[in-house]
Design brief:
2 copies of one chain form a homodimer.
Chain A (H helix, E strand, L loop, with lengths): L2 H12 L8 E3 L6 E3 L5 E11 L11 H18 L3 E11 L5 H18 L2 E9 L4 E11 L14 E5 L4 H8 L2 H8 L5 H10 L3 E4 L4 H12 L2 E4 L11 H6 L6 E5 L8 E2 L2 E10 L6 E3 L2 E2 L10
Parallel strand pairs in A: 4-5, 9-13
Antiparallel strand pairs in A: 1-2, 3-6, 4-6, 7-10, 7-12, 8-10, 9-12, 11-12, 13-14
Helix pairs in contact in A: 1-3, 2-3, 2-6, 4-5
Chain lengths: 300, 300
């Protein structure tokens, strides 16, 4: 199948899904055209999903890979408290893969896109030795209201949505609900929007593991954090998986201690797991001792 | 070098370059934040640059690869008649490459970014078997003024900026000005903006070769095209390289026959190469005969 035909196929899979009038022109030109509304900010993120790094063709079906590629970027939109608007998908694939692989990839991706109300407006296609996907997502927030990593203050409480370690446990066991959770992570869009409306002080998504991601939030905010041993650990997962396991895609956030945070947000349990400190800047302490950073680092 | 340190390094290379107050938040959070101006449209494009496909490490220095990765996306912004605003760069690299490779890559990319006034606001880093880069660019145009591929009408003249076949000739010979041209393509930003102000009817960039790209423009516009044998061929390049060679990154555009098109636009020669026809929709004829499409297709 030629590139032109592949693009036509993807365009027809993606077409007439948008109910968003801010998208003036989508797939088919040199670039997509967006007409933003005044009074809003747009947020942008890009994320790779690479064969052998983030998935394997032996264990992940094309629709799973499409789902995951979009979910990773959407999770960043969730972390900013933003509402999804559009995405660009760049897909590199070995020429040996059949055209049906590409269709199934896009069907998996577009099913999640439909559910989260985001429009595929463009991207790139190329042949390569291995499968590589880069997804760029754009979201909108009311002007000045994006949730940043840099807003945590001394005395704030630290919270997480959902449970920790489930994805790492699924990856280790390849079985049951934890494995399905690993294959099909769910971006916490509704929770992110709810947290933005509550006005929490800082937020990020947990993609590389709590111990590494919380260090990043602390570094951006110029603070430290003390976390408690009572973490919301996913069923069957270990403490180690909860502290250091990647790809839970839950939201990690901070809020002033006087702010009332509901026990459930957008249907997800919310747990207070610690406190922001002015000392030990850029460091995390766990049960009174320094916590070693063992989350996923691409270059370690 | 850890991912966190790499990001810090890139952030410092990219920092305080932006004079664009519409960029509220750049590298360092889950996503970048943009505050668009009312009355303008934003255009978005993404382009892969992949090892073994678009470059080889034996012939391309890291700064060349950085330059080319950004140039490809900027060329799409030029084709829309837009002014560059910001870019996201996702870089996958083998862990064996030294940190200096990454710095030199970003220096090459950021030198072009500086010159074209575009701000690096984010992206992703990952380790992979081969080098892969995906660059997303955002540009702005006055509301409703983006140059599309779909505006060509019967009787319009077809034009190109600059010369054709130089990049393909450079790739074949690896020598002299043509090779330097291949290594460091120049996105036609100023020419694209000038064409938008003139109000030409359709425009795209020449990335995959005239014979293939003109077919794409014709298909989007629902027209055909007849091109003349008198093409502006780059020095030493062959007619075949001019007709089918990729990566010239010149602009291909159409304008009504009554519109006065200057012989030079933004310092580049402009040549009338043909006419839009109502017959042979989606086809190109050359010197009175059907022109075979031989441009670069990733999936042929």
């Amino acid at each position: 199948m030629r590139e032109t035909e592949l693009v036509r196929k993807i365009r027809s899979l993606a077409s007439v899904r948008s109910r968003d009038r801010s998208i003036v022109r989508a797939i088919g030109d040199d670039a997509a055209v967006l007409r933003p509304r005044p009074g809003e900010d747009l947020v942008f993120t890009s994320d790779f999903v690479l064969e052998g790094r983030h998935f394997n063709v032996s264990t992940h079906r094309p629709a799973d890979i499409g789902h995951k590629a979009l979910a990773r970027s959407l999770s960043d939109l969730a972390a900013m408290g933003s509402e999804p608007v559009f995405c660009l998908v760049s897909l590199a694939i070995p020429a040996r893969l059949p055209p049906s692989w590409v269709s199934r990839f896009y069907k998996g991706l577009l099913a999640l896109a439909d559910r989260t109300n985001i429009t595929l407006v463009g991207g790139d296609l190329a042949s390569f030795d291995k499968i590589g996907v880069d997804v760029v997502c754009c979201g909108r927030v009311p002007r000045g209201k994006a949730l940043l990593r840099s807003g945590a203050k001394q005395g704030d409480r630290v919270y997480v949505t959902g449970e920790l370690g489930g994805s790492a446990h699924g990856f280790a066991t390849r079985r049951g609900a934890a494995w399905r959770r690993h294959l099909r992570p769910e971006p916490r869009i509704a929770a992110g929007i709810a947290l933005r409306k509550l006005g929490v002080s800082a937020c990020m998504d947990l993609s590389d593991g709590l111990s590494l991601d919380l260090v990043r939030l602390c570094a951006e905010s110029g603070v430290g954090a003390e976390i408690s041993p009572y973490l919301p650990i996913a069923r069957n997962a270990s403490l180690d998986e909860a502290l250091h396991g990647g790809e839970d895609y839950e939201l990690l956030f901070t809020a002033p201690s006087h702010m009332k945070i509901p026990g459930k947000i957008a249907g997800l349990p919310v747990t207070a797991i610690g406190t922001i400190t002015a000392s030990h800047v850029g460091k995390v302490r766990f049960a009174g001792r320094p916590l070693q950073t063992k989350g996923f680092d691409h270059f370690l």
